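Hi support team,

I'm filing this because I wasn't sure whether my run with iron/sulfur cluster finished correctly. The job status page said complete, but I'd like someone to confirm that the output block is well-formed before I use it downstream. Pasting the exact inputs I used:
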Amino acid sequence: MPEKGVKCPLGDVTWAKCEKCRVSPKKVCHIPVPMLNTMRQHESITYSPSRLLACDRQFILERHYEFYTDIDHAYAALRGTVFHAGMDALSTGGVKEKRLVDGEFSGKPDVYWTETDKKGNTLITVHDYKTVSTLSPSMTEAVIPHQIQVNLYAYLIALTVPNPVVKELQIIYFDMKRVRIFSSMPGRYAIEKGERIELQEIKVKPWEWDERFIGKRIAERKQHDANFAATGELPKQLPRDEQWKCSRCAVHGICADYSARHGESMPGFSNAFATRSETQAVRGE
Ligand code: SF4
Ligand code: SF4
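And here is everything the job wrote out:
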């Protein structure tokens, strides 16, 4: 089912009405028009790295219900879109935001480079940007789902070149005060208040691991879809320590209604960026 429009101070507003409102004196939201213009881009792509790593329940709800995206929840993503556009404009070289497709699975790395070495291998470098509200100075490891995501981008690039080998994967976190780069190359560190902080490498997965992960997650999603069609049952909520993601969820209201009807606790609104236990939980996949 489609994203029908936006939930804003004017209520549930369809896209057509929102587009008219944007250029009229009725506009009461404080989101600038160029940002609003990027909003209606909810991925129709079914299986992408970020979608496969996101909440199963959200996936089912977005497919089966019409929904209005909460403007306040969408703001963080809109800010991220603007930031990515700025980085694209400033970057020189590399392939930017190109969608790569492998059957049902597809993804769009932020930027990547390929080069051929003397042995005829194609060396792949991928950079993935992440805008976050707060970046902890003591963060020493990239969030595991983000590590998986950048590996899956490398996998998609690998399908397009001969003898692919990962040269470097980078995840670059930005908040309003600092930037931190995690790399698959060893030896990276940060200096905070004069103290050296060793940063862990991004783990590079074998191509077979990526392939298995994609197959497993797509099969799980299809199973959830079939269950929902047969019984109306939704997959579980995200675990409590991952519910910081709920604050960006477009179908939070529908999930909350279902939770209330089924005696579940309300899906949370924690603003914590990521927790250690989430990192460990996802590593088990
Ligand atoms: S322009 Fe802003 S206030 Fe108007 S409908 Fe869209 S989101 Fe709501
Ligand atoms: S509110 Fe949270 S648990 Fe519910 S669908 Fe959205 S992300 Fe999943």
